[in-house]
Design a protein that fits this description.
Blueprint lengths: L1 E2 L7 H15 L7 E2 L14 H4 L7 H9 L5 E8 L2 E2 L1 H17 L9 E7 L4 H14 L12 E3 L3 H6 L1 H26 L19
Parallel strand pairs: 1-2, 1-3, 3-5, 5-6
Antiparallel strand pairs: 3-4
Bound molecules: flavin mononucleotide.
Flavin mononucleotide binds next to helix 1, strand 3 and strand 5.
GO molecular function: oxidoreductase activity
Organism: Methanosarcina acetivorans (strain ATCC 35395 / DSM 2834 / JCM 12185 / C2A)
Family: Belongs to the SsuE family. Isf subfamily.
């Protein structure tokens, strides 16, 4: 679980801990990775990750890439900043997902994912759409809840009063746990992984 907020123990963290608590009750271990407050560089398209599988800017994106392969599922949390995900989590996810793809690490392939958004008031659904796009490009099954995964508040105490938001977090966690257990059972039963096709990049040019 990634806390993409500049606040280590803020509203996003409060939502993530509700998900973590429920996942733990379901027998799933969790870890919350805070991206921190230091500046994170956006992708400069240098493509050195093609050779190294890591980002040329050795920041929290690389720390996360070092542990991502060992995780079975992912939750990325972000506060809303100007009706979008924060600049920091956007830079972080650009570098993480691009390095992973170009470096051929396959840390995310067929691993369930979800995003959790926190806002004082508005911009949650655009941020939700934005972050889900990383997952659907990466062949990650997106786990849903019974609403879009958001909590409201300007401080953690507000989030604790958002009872519907907290319920959405718990439902999300149980759905994620159920999927993880089904996937494990399927793998044990010998259900084969999907047949892979060579990637095509036509850039809309047809001839
Ligand atoms: C630069 C900045 C921009 C923000 N923009 C929005 C916004 O567009 N909509 C909103 O509802 N809240 C906005 N907020 C408030 C935060 O999204 C909100 O307080 C959030 O719950 C904080 O989560 P955190 O404690 O995990 O950082 C903004 C906060 C900051 C610092």
């Amino acid at each position: 679980m990634v806390n993409g907020s500049p606040h280590e123990k803020g509203c996003t963290y409060t939502a993530l801990t509700e998900v973590a608590k429920t996942l733990n009750e379901e027998g799933i271990d969790t870890e919350i990775f805070w991206i921190g407050k230091k500046p994170l560089t956006g992708c400069t398209a240098c493509k050195s990750c093609t050779k190294t599988g890591r980002c040329a800017f050795n920041d929290r994106a690389n720390d996360f890439l070092d542990i991502a392969k060992g995780a079975d599922g992912f939750i990325f949390g972000s506060p809303v900043h100007y009706a979008s995900a924060t600049g920091a989590i956007t830079s972080f996810m650009d570098c993480v997902f691009y390095s992973d793809l170009l470096g051929g690490r396959q840390s995310f392939y067929l691993k369930p994912a979800a995003t959790v958004i926190s806002a004082r008031r508005a911009g949650t659904t655009t941020t939700f759409d934005q972050l889900n796009k990383y997952f659907t490009l990466s062949e990650m099954p997106v786990i849903s809840s019974r609403y879009w995964n958001m909590v409201h508040g300007a401080k953690p105490e507000d989030v604790k009063k958002d009872l519907e938001g907290l319920q959405i977090m718990r439902v999300l966690a149980r759905n994620m746990a159920w999927f993880l257990k089904c996937k494990e059972a399927g793998m044990k039963a010998g259900v084969p992984l999907p047949v892979k096709e060579e990637r095509m990049s036509t850039n809309f040019i047809r001839e």
